[in-house]
């Protein structure tokens, strides 16, 4: 692994392609290095993880809408089309629309994997566009499960490397600007494209997916689930254009009117982006971590801590009148993005949207403290949010930035990287309860790290209400054989909803 320095260049400097970040990333995508066994194992886990959270979202509004849009488009003539979660695998649509529908389903509950460093990310968002293209072209190009694994390994590597080196949120740019390039690179690896073609696709993928972070601020809307799916859809289309010989703005990162100069640190800005050396295995996925709970990742450890406190002090914490205040000492991000430092009144509003509540650590900590558990549906219902004792305690919870927790949050030393903090509960009688947690229980360094059995159980739990038992077992048997799947088997990497599930909700009408 080496550090590639990225800075703005004047046009008259004529920065060579080989010196551009997009080219370096394209070289990563074309490196034929094999995927390590433990990386392959984790890729299978994340395919299962994505399917689990997608199943739990099948009848939620954003997914119903996105699925309706996707199924309004016919299969394109260049391949067999791609599957859409919940729908019979024989009913295909074009790959960019499948990436759209499945991407929304994966992201809606904010319940799949995460990586946090200079920027934030859900690298599992790479899987829907890569898999959609694989299904579409499986027979045409003879693509196998091994090719899918290679493509996903690249998608994770590129996104996580960008996240380690370049902060977008500092300039209020949404984190999916790292996803467009990574998904394009992953598709390039999947298809065995050349460096020049992938380079052009990465540039277009970045250029078309830069947007502001207002989608994650204030009154958070349903677009939060659509944003990464849009980036995946744009990546598919960017690869298609690049394969047809169409080019991208160059240099996309370093140009004097490029991304760094005008959207990020400006003409004097520079970054160090880690890039694997030629022949070095792509192992970045192993630095990422999934979620046990359906909430913003920075809330995962706090839910576990609240659960622990609930068990230790049930008589005290059940009564808001016994508590004077609760202060969560935590990282800059947790304080300013999902904490009281955001200064968003919506984070204390019982009538706020689910998307807003899952970005409110005061709400999440309160409910987990009172219930001793967390549920992807029940913990967000209007009835739960409006409970008087919850509202009373909720308004006593604030966050405060702690420099040490901020340092650990940004550390690239995985052994000390932390996403929790220290809680100080001041009681009405003057006493205190103080405790802390560094990482979530499900984190690789946590109390109960997620392993294959946990991913399988997560799928069984979330899919149980909407899939037939036989379909659950069929999907798991296919997913666990991912590295060995033949071209005709890739279409099995989806699932069909039980009879009546999809028809239980009305599909809204639009243009298509």
Automatic annotation (TrEMBL):
InterPro entries from the UniProt entry: MmgE/PrpD_sf, MmgE/PrpD_sf_1, MmgE/PrpD_sf_2, MmgE_PrpD, MmgE_PrpD_C, MmgE_PrpD_N
Residue span, MmgE/PrpD N-terminal domain: 20-268
Domain (MmgE/PrpD C-terminal) ranges: 293-481
Keywords for the protein's UniProt record, in alphabetical order: Lyase
An annotated Gene Ontology molecular function: 2-methylcitrate dehydratase activity
Catalytic activity annotation: (2S,3S)-2-methylcitrate = 2-methyl-cis-aconitate + H2O
Subunit structure, interactors included: Monomer.
Family: Belongs to the PrpD family.
Protein name, per record: 2-methylcitrate dehydratase
Organism: Agromyces atrinae
């Amino acid at each position: 692994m080496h550090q590639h320095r990225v800075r703005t260049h004047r046009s008259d400097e004529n920065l060579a392609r080989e010196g551009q970040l997009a080219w370096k990333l394209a070289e990563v995508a074309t490196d034929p290095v094999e995927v390590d066994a433990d990386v392959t194992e984790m890729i299978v886990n994340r395919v299962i993880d994505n399917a689990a959270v997608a199943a739990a979202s099948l009848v939620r509004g954003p997914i119903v809408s996105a699925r309706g849009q996707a199924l309004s488009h016919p299969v394109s003539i260049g391949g067999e089309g791609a599957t859409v979660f919940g729908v019979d695998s024989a009913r295909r649509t074009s790959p960019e629309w499948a990436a759209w529908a499945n991407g929304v389903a994966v992201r809606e509950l904010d319940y799949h994997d995460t990586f946090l460093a200079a920027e934030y990310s859900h690298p599992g968002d790479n899987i829907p566009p890569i898999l959609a293209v694989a299904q579409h072209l499986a027979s045409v190009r003879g693509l196998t499960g091994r090719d899918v694994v290679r493509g996903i390994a690249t998608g994770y590597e590129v996104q996580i490397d960008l996240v380690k080196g370049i902060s977008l949120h500092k300039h209020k740019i949404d984190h999916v600007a790292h996803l467009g390039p990574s998904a394009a690179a992953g598709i390039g690896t999947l298809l065995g494209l050349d460096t020049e073609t992938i380079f052009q696709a990465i540039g277009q993928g970045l250029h078309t997916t830069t947007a502001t972070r207002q989608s994650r601020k204030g009154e958070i809307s349903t677009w939060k689930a659509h944003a990464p799916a849009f980036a995946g859809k744009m990546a598919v289309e960017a690869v298609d254009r690049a394969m047809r010989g169409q080019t991208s703005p160059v240099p996309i990162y370093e140009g004097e009117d490029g991304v760094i100069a005008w959207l990020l640190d400006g003409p004097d800005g520079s970054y160090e982006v880690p890039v694997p050396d030629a022949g070095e295995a792509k192992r970045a996925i192993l630095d990422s971590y999934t979620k046990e709970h359906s909430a913003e990742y920075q809330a995962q450890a706090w839910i576990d801590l609240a659960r622990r406190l609930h068990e230790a002090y049930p008589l005290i914490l059940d009564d808001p009148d016994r508590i004077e205040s609760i202060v969560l000492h935590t990282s800059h991000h947790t304080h300013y993005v999902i904490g009281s430092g955001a200064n968003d009144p919506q984070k204390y509003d019982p009538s706020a949207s689910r998307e807003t509540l899952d970005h409110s650590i005061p709400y999440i900590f309160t409910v987990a403290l009172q219930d001793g558990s967390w549920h992807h549906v029940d913990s967000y219902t209007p009835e739960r949010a409006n409970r008087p004792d919850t509202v009373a305690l909720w308004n006593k919870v604030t966050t405060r930035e702690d420099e040490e927790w901020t340092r650990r949050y940004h550390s690239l030393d995985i052994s000390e990287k932390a996403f929790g903090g220290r809680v100080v509960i001041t009681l009405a009688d003057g006493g205190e309860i103080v405790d802390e947690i560094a990482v979530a229980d499900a984190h690789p360094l946590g109390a109960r790290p997620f392993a294959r059995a946990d991913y399988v159980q997560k799928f069984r739990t979330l899919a149980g209400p909407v899939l037939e038992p036989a379909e659950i077992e069929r999907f798991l048997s296919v997913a666990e054989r991912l590295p060995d799947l033949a071209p005709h088997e890739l279409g099995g990497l989806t699932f069909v909803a039980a009879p009546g599930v999809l028809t239980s909700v009305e599909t809204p009408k639009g243009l298509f």
